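Here we describe the complex-level prediction in full. Unlike the single-chain runs in Section 2.1, the two entities below were treated as one system.
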Amino acid sequence: MQYSSQAVAKPYFIAAIGLFVGQILFGLIMGLQYVVGDFLFPAIPFNIARMVHTNLLIVWVLFGFMGAAYYLIPEEAEKELHSPLLAIVLFWTFLIAGVLTILGYLLMSYAKLAAFTGNSFLPTMGREFLEQPTITKIGIVIVALGFIYNVGMTVLQGRKTVVNLVLMTGLIGLAVMFLFSFYNPSNLVLDKYYWWWVVHLWVEGVWELILGSILAFVLIKITGVDREVIEKWLYVIIAMALITGIIGTGHHYYWIGTPEYWQWWGSVFSALEPLPFFLMTVFAFNMVNRRRREHPNKAATLWALGTAVMAFLGAGVWGFLHTLAPINYYTHGTQITAAHGHMAFYGAYVMIVLTIISYAMPLLRGRAANSNKAQVLEMWSFWLMSIAMVFITLFLTAAGILQVYLQRATDTPLAFMAVQEKVALFYWLRETAGLVFFIGLVIYLISFFVTGEQKLAVPAGATAMN
Amino acid sequence: MSSEIFTKSMARNIYYGGSLFFILLFLALTFDTSRALPNRDHRENLTPEVIKGKAVWEENNCIGCHTLLGEGAYYAPELGNVYLRRGGDQGGTDFIKAWIKAMPTGAPGRRQMPQFNLTDEELDAITAFLKWTSQINTANWPPNREG
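The structure predicted for the assembly as a whole is:
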């Protein structure tokens, strides 16, 4: 750590990990509800568990992004953060608002929460992933503005690198696209059309800029490869991401009432969407192979390579699997979608946050890297979680293929619930893989508390290579 | 990408130029879609009851279990065409209202839908909304009435 204000990243990372644990616990509850339908009913109905699961994911990934920005922007700008105090105030604001919102989901019915928070004045609730009460959404905007002001001032007054400019672009894009969550027309088709401007243009648009810049930063640090080389790659990757991803939004406009020409635009451009992820994988391995130093943090290197590979598999390959309109006609809204969603989010956004945490946390705790013992545990957790996620994805894909066959691609379609019972075996297997994921997560947590012989703090000059 | 023929500034120009071009193309397609939609979404039938029905849909978080035109959660049946699946103009409305009122079934081990305690007015509204939704031109999706 080169600037004392980078320390504000630490609470953000800790909160992210804490909420991650909550997300997985609710995932396990839902997974069981898929096969034991009345589990925890009516205390926690499925829709509530799902809302907690997905909202916690979004919130903890945002905590991770903010922590990443607070860590890397001062270092890139070569300047202390504009206001560490503001960062801490916003941290508690965001955490308290987030926790209150989750408690609201769990402690009262959703309709009561809507009434209690005055949803009728500006109705924004009850849409997938945007279930937060309107006041929470306003809070998110305020936190985002304060955050962007804080890191933005730091960049403006400091050194402007490609990494921090791309990160800033991604963060500003994230905030701007979120504003569409306040637009909720009563015409369902329009509602869905612009809902995707938040959801798709986040995860297949501006978030990829954030992902790319964090990955570039970590690779510069751990490989010592010339910044010029890495920045060129970063430009190519994000160029491909936006060139394919913006019109790629069209793959959501096949069956929601929008004109048929979207089937062409969506199919052609989203078929190209794996490209930036493929480039990212080539990039990460190339840089590590051409490394000019042996960084003591092996675990961070593993996460950096892992995020590139898993993002390519989850977002690239599993996305392509069902993105062409004639295929999507049968797979739209089935377990195939769920399979893709799980591996894409894990590979791209969970793992990039765990990458920056793995790299930055030891430095924030005053050492170049964790002890060998702690790193070995962390790498075990990497493999357990990643392999478990591969199996979750495979089991959901199997369930999805059967679902498509039994319910849609047949002359004698069965009803939805009849099909669900027939594929229950795969839901049991998915839940088992989920338990393995949870074991991996517990080992991950333990790795933070394992001591052993630690690598000393970064020797003078070792980070000055950049 | 070690070759010096392809420089960083070329990569940067592709990023800026490409992004700008495709943002403009996306906005142009959005403009064209906005002009085409009135013929597909039958917005002339958006009565106050349908609009209220959408609010009932949202404020009870129906999307947390069901899909609507394929989007949402995959725990419970697709509802974009439920009005047609349950009889359309011959009984669709009555079926949906009776179904919502009868929940939860309480059958052991089966997936349960909560009791939302909707008023008669809200039940009429949600049904009107689902009927309206079933008449959107969705390019023939879903493939069959099972959704």
